[in-house]
Amino acid sequence: MSALIEVRDLYKVYGSGDNLTPALEAIDLDVARGEFLAIMGPSGSGKSTLMNILGCLDVPTMGTYHLDGEDVAEMGDDQLAEVRAAKIGFVFQSFNLLPRASVMRNVQLPFLYSRTPVSERDERAEAALRAVNLDEDRWDHMSNELSGGQMQRVAIARALVNDPPLILADEPTGNLDSRTGHKILMTFRDLQRQGRTIVLITHDAEVAEIADRAVHIRDGRLVDQATADAHDAASGEDEE
C-alpha cells in the first residue's frame, strides 16, 4: 500500500542565533493510506509540533514532507491553506465548536469561504453526521446543548465534510469519560474502514492500543518501544 505521508530527516528549530531550541530532530515517518497511526509522547515531547507540521499548520526548518504525493514542506501560506482545506480534517480535544450555533452550522463551517452550493452543503453535512452516528434529532440543537461525546462526534463530522483523505486527531478523548472515549475511538475505527487515514496524537497507552501501529516521540526524536519504556521507568524513579 502506498504512503499518504512521507517524512524524511525532518527538523524543527525555534529561535535564532545563539538561542536555538530544537523541537524535532531527524524525524523519518511513513504512514500508509488507510492506516490508523498513534503518535505517543508526554507533554513537551514534540508530538504537537509534529502534528502541526503534518497538518500543514507549520513548516519544518529542514527536511521533506510529502502529503498525498505533494511536497508541502516548501509551500507558502496560501498553498498550505489549500492543502488543509482539501486533504486534512482536524479533530481537537476541546471540540472547538461554536457554542451558539446549530450542529448543522458547525459541521458546515469548512464551507464558509467556498463556492459549494447550499444544497450540496446540506447533503454533505448530513452524510458526515450519519457517518459518525449522531442521532438526527440532535442536528438542529445548539452545540452547547450536547453532551461531550456528542460534541466530539460533531467535531469529527466537521472534519469529514470536505472528504479529506487524512484525519488528524489531537487527544480527541482527553475531555471525555472512558466509556464515551472508547465510543469515539470506535468511530475513528469505522472511518478507517471507510478508507480514511487516521493519525491520532495521545499520551495514553490505552488509547494508542486502538491504532494499527504506535510510534513514540521523546525529546523531539522518534524512538522505539524499549527506549520509551526505559524513559518512563527513569521518569518514575525520578519522581519518587
Task: Write a structural description.
Strand 7 (166-170), helix 6 and strand 8 (197-202) form a beta-alpha-beta unit. With 240 residues, the protein is of the alpha/beta class. Helix content is 36%, strand content 26%. It starts with a strand and ends with a helix. The protein has helices spanning 47-54, 77-87, 103-107, 118-131, 148-160, 178-193, 205-208, 225-239; strands spanning 3-14, 21-32, 36-40, 62-67, 70-71, 88-92, 166-170, 197-202, 213-218, 221-223. The longest helix has 16 residues, at 178-193. Helix 4 crosses helix 5. The strands form two sheets. A six-stranded mixed sheet has the order 6-7-8-3-9-10, sandwiched between helices. The protein is globular and about 55 Å long. The chain has a single domain, classed as P-loop containing nucleotide triphosphate hydrolases (Rossmann fold, 3-Layer(aba) Sandwich). The model has no long low-confidence stretch (mean pLDDT 91).
